[in-house]
TrEMBL record:
This is adenylate kinase. SUPFAM superfamilies: P-loop containing nucleoside triphosphate hydrolases (SSF52540). It catalyses: AMP + ATP = 2 ADP. Its main location: cytoplasm. GO terms for cellular component: cytoplasm. Keywords: ATP-binding, Cytoplasm, Kinase, Nucleotide-binding, Phosphoprotein, Transferase. The keyword Nucleotidyltransferase does not apply. One of its GO terms (molecular function) is ATP binding. Belongs to the adenylate kinase family. NCBIfam families: aden_kin_iso1. Its EC number is 2.7.4.3.
């Protein structure tokens, strides 16, 4: 795994993590693993565990890390033979998650933090919910406020822990403008990786 980049994608609910990841996948062909999507797949299976996860997610709280890390670990193991790099979207969401990932899987090469105003994040989620054919169970005003609070309570500790490999990007801008900064950061990591393996 040390020859391919591992990039953590952080930011509050609705800041545009998934949107930027889709553009990164298009340009670099990386494997995109969203912790939220992996959890929603589990919920869709309608198992007892899925129902428990749904209740936590609808409250806006964090799912226990053993569930999230186990889903991520399984997906990484399945993809790693052919992957060009991993985008770990929405993880870590608290300091302990980052430590567990690096101990059990591999160190992250880069942390991209999309910093965005709360009102903007809220508006983006509500606009997404209005436009969706099937609305996410957590895309309602009350859960959005709870998700924002969970994010605020946990994020500074993560940023302090990974200050040396974190790039904070202003996400209050148009998608393509944000992406220019993303590309610069990823190109830099790819160059470093190439140098290290030469
Ligand atoms: P998750 O699914 O990760 O949701 P989230 O973090 O709240 O983020 P979203 O998916 O809502 O938004 P996004 O940042 O990807 O924005 P998007 O690109 O879609 O997590 C859901 C829940 O799962 C959590 O609350 C928790 O319970 C649980 N969970 C997940 N990970 C966990 C973990 N690690 N540990 C424990 N529990 C975990 O954009 C939003 C909208 O804005 C879109 O319509 C988009 O088109 C638009 N948009 C994007 N960028 C821009 C822009 N620059 N300008 C204008 N519009 C934009």
């Amino acid at each position: 795994m040390s020859d391919i980049p591992i990039i953590w994608i952080l930011g509050g609910p609705g800041c545009g993590k998934g949107t930027q990841c889709a553009k990164i996948v298009e340009k670099y062909g990386f494997t995109h693993l969203s912790s939220g999507d992996l959890l929603r797949e589990e919920v869709a299976s309608d198992s007892d565990k899925g129902r428990q996860l749904q209740a936590i997610m609808t409250s806006g709280a964090l799912v226990p890390n053993e569930e999230v890390l186990s889903l991520l670990n399984g997906a990484i193991t399945r993809a790693k033979g052919s992957s060009k790099g991993f985008l770990i979207d929405g993880y870590p969401r608290e300091k302990g998650q980052g430590i567990a990932f690096e101990e059990q899987i591999a160190p992250a090469d880069l942390v991209l933090y999309f910093q965005c105003a709360e009102e903007t994040m809220k508006d983006r989620i509500l606009a997404r919910a209005n436009a969706a054919a099937v609305k996410r169970a957590d895309d309602n005003e009350a859960t959005i406020l709870a998700r924002l609070k969970t994010f605020k309570d946990n994020t500074n500790a993560i940023l302090e822990q990974y200050v040396e490999k974190t790039l904070t990007i202003n996400a209050n801008r148009p998608v393509d403008e944000i992406f220019l900064d993303v590309v610069q950061a990823i190109d830099c990591v790819l160059k470093k990786k190439q140098k290290a393996s030469a």
